[in-house]
Amino acid sequence: MPSETQKSVVSVAEEKEPVTEEPAELPGVRQGQKDHKIGFTERKFAHLPARESQLKEPPYPKSKNLDTKSGENLFIEADDKDPVWLKDKGDLFFKRSDYHAAINAYSKALKADKDFLSGRLNRATCYIKTRNFNLCVDDINDIVSQIRALKPDEREQDKDFYDKIMARSLVKRGAAYAWLS
Predict the structure, then answer these.
(1) DSSP H or E stretch at residue 122
(2) What is the pTM of this model?
(3) Residues 6+ apart with CB under 8 A from 89
(4) Which CATH architecture has domain 78-180?
């Protein structure tokens, strides 16, 4: 049997009338404007992003004037001929796991300087990452033959460098051979 308080709660709930809401009136669809162009302002602060840049891209760095015999000012771009710059670009690609772009950068560096051991070693590392083990072994064999072909006095001048390159090369060659078999 319900108590007095329960009866009063039920009677209060029964007394409430349902509220009916009228639906809100929605505005109509706007008509589009023709030939309305939205422009963006120029970037005032270079470190902040902008939606659209109206400034020109900065020029590529140029190396010093190489040959003025023909009367023309001939410049070469730094990325085409400087093997150290190309190796650094390859290193950036390698860090981003873009191994094919890194291989291209290291190959350009080796085209400019065939005796560039660090570039060849890094390219061999990329070949391991892309599972081109035969190309890795070829690069490592070139490094080993270049170091062994050095005159003893040349090798003694930079003994630490050549020993480090030789050790890293042999480890990578062993890894490539292990994957081949």
Answers:
(1) helix 117-129
(2) 0.57
(3) 79, 105
(4) Alpha Horseshoe (1.25)
